[in-house]
Amino acid sequence: MAKTKQKPKSIVNRRARYDYSIEQTFIVGMSLTGAETKSLRLGHGQLSGAYVTIKDNELLLINATVNGTNGIRIVDSEQTRSRKLLAKRREIEQMMQAKVQGKTIIPLELLTKGRYIKLKIAIAKGKKSYDKRQTLKARSEQKQINSAIKQQYR
Fold first, then answer.
1. Would the pTM count as exceeding 0.85?
2. Which of 50, 100, 146, 147 could lock 64 by a disulfide, CB 3.0 to 4.6 Å apart?
3. Selecting from 3.20.20.450, 2.60.200.20, 1.10.1040.10, 2.40.280.10, what CATH number does the domain 11-127 have?
């Protein structure tokens, strides 16, 4: 029997859209080792608690975890190391201006479908607790509307 090709597992930062209001998104490349690349393609990584910072006109991904598996050994100190992000100079300058305005740069999703592993990042503004409640309320109302429409057409 032929092997079936598994879908690449997308690694998503679920808390990002809840904690931040997203203004602008970018897709950037990542500088990784071979073991990290293989591990991320298998879906062994986390973006929760990760953020992007700018140092010496370079983007760095801080606090993102890449776990190894049985066949892939990644040392504990290397799992959460800072990783360089590859972006265009114009995009980096836009992000620097946003940082000056008090906004943050957060990772949203790791894209592992193509030849290269890319990271979707966003310029975002932190939400207050009342904004989060409004988001939850709007989401629950939308669910009720969708279920009512579904029941109507049954």
1. no
2. 50
3. 2.40.280.10
